[in-house]
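Training component of the fellowship. As part of building independent skills, the fellow (R.M.) carried out the full modelling exercise for a liganded target. The chosen ligand was D-glutamic acid. The inputs are recorded below so that the supervisory panel can assess the work.
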Amino acid sequence: MTDTHIDVFATGGTIAGTAGSATRRDYRPGQISVEDLLAEMAKLGLPARLVGRQFANIGSEDIGPELWRRLHEAAMESMADPACQGIMITHGTDTAEETAFLFDQTLPTAKPVVLVGAMRPADAVGSDGMRNFANAVRVAGDADAAGRGVLLVMSDHIFAARDARKARTEGTHAFRGFPRGPVGHVTPTSLEWFGPAWRVAEPARFAFHEHMPKVSILYAYAGMTADEVQQALDGGARGLVLAGFGQGNASAAIRAALAKAVLSGVPVVRSSRVDEGLVDHEPDDDTHGFIAARALGPPKARILLQLLLANGVTDPVSAQQAFDRR
Ligand code: DGL
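Fellow's submitted model of the complex:
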């Protein structure tokens, strides 16, 4: 039996980070090259042929459209390469859910695409990087990982991109899945899926665009005034995401300003600043033309609204369907 061929796209993050000392608190992400990461992996003797490519070596707070375009292009090439069976992307955890969700919506589901990161740098005591990496190799090399959209592997859990959220600032169990929780469990020696694939042989849902319309997130707080809505519009926002109270609520003044924005052709998505729970479509949304984010938190709601705008989907009913979809 030949080894599984997996393309590994490296972008940096803590999984490639070092502190230079096991007792130092601060560290720098993006210090170890993909060659060195793969050389470490080779020592484990996993039955996989890993083909590495360094796209960047940065903290994921600096990731954005230009790097996304290069990664997306490469992923499409790997999708078309009959020799390649799976794709892995090493990534900082801070924005991993955004990259994962963007590619989840803009890549076909024909082959596994797996993001992996770490919460502790490579030279920390109890570093999680190599274990997460070995787990991700197992997932990316499993044919049954295809048809589930983009996946994120952390702390022996497999999350679907749509569900994955960074929910803790520290500790190795920093990610949670909402509303589904993990879709599978993986260790370097085992892999278990919690159900069948739900997106088998799906084409990309949206075309990828490097230059997407600007969408701003408005974070609600007590005492917020409506001029913040106007400032976002004056700053060029073509769409707005409310990170509202509770189930996507805001004061009467903010709601009125948002309703006015919709009337001027700027779509508005209501999401929540609360970490978990649905924001459902309400009768009032029909009155004002608002879209309910459902299970998506503000960062992913922003990406989905950008994709809708970039692909010419502006009517609230079609937009709502995109938010309702698994
Ligand atoms: N700045 C962070 C990033 O690259 C480092 C944290 C991490 O990778 O977990 O996202």
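The panel noted the following from the submitted structure. The first helix runs from residue 34 to 42. The chain has two domains: 5-193, 215-324.
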